[in-house]
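Problem 12. The chain below contains 387 residues. Write out its predicted structure in token notation.
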Amino acid sequence: MRYFLLLFCMSWAISAGAQTTAELFNNAKQEADPAKQIKLLSRVVAKSPRHVGAYHRRADAYMAQHKYPQAIKDYNRVVSLRPKDPFRYYARGLAYTRMNEPAFALTDFSKAISLKPTYSDFYLERARVYNSLGKFGPALDDYKTYTQNWKTLSSPLLREMVPVALASYRFDDAQILLTALQKRGEDSASFYSWKGRLLQNASKLDEALAAYSKAVNRAPKDPQYYRMRGNAYKELGDFEAALEDFTYSLELEPEAYWFNRRGLVYEEMQQFKNALADYDKAVTLDPKWAIAYNNRGYIKARLKDFTGAKEDFETAIKLDANAPTPYINLAGVYWTAKKDRKKMYENLRKALQHNFKNTDSLYDDAQKGWLFKSINKTAEFRSLFYK
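Solution.
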């Protein structure tokens, strides 16, 4: 009995080992479990090291298990074996997207497009990668190539495209997309915030405020809509309303950018101590942000703390040596606090080297003119800017 059992096991093992590559590959295609698929496909590539389908399916199985480096390794092999097949690059591009490697994904989608420029899905995925990289113009171009008839797009894709159109300042395209959404009964907070952005860009501030208010009403715990409305109020000159919106948004989500933004409103209202407190918070939350130091330095100068102002302007310059405004403000401190012409002109020249353009502000006491009192009336001072 033992003899027959041993013969049976040996026969089964030989039979299993004798499975052809085609049989193993077919079994793998029918297998639903990715782990079992990988084992079967590994046997296929062991038998046939140039089996493109096995590498590709094993890569897909690794993707299902979120084992992205292993998937990329197999996709690399696939691409090397089929360098003229656009869908191989497309598959690897999707894997790079899942790995949050947009630069590599962009290269693969572009290669796929170069090999098969009529296949629209390639453009859609490249559009999404461009969007993730902040390249909004090329992203919108690819979205438009993906489909020439926007009326046929799904509502989710329309919603995906609107922020891209706005970010690339393609307002006519954004309006077409919004109109398509409106015809479908869109009534979301996002929709009204996008509509407000278009209206604000057209200087229709009252209508923009109405749209932002609808966004706020539909998402009363989302700080972004209060910020949008606050910006519109600020542009309209209603600083009290702007403060209210910025303050509530900061209660929901304290961020350096919006403390700085509220500080600018306090500055407009001549409430310099409140502005200083906000710039302090901005610097604390983001100690590498040059703009916050520059703004805080300016308020310190307003409050006659010239030593503190000088330190902040110098820090802003260290963090961003190409920004012209801190050099202007530092020049103003050298003149106002010390009457140091040499240091003043030295920093003014640096500001000009870094493309400072708003020279009119240096003669307006409501802007930066107060930092250059008396000297800004001299021919020597004016000649620096009007050569």
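Discussion. Residues 28 and 37 are 5 Å apart (CA to CA). Students who got a different answer should revisit the alignment rule from Section 12.3.
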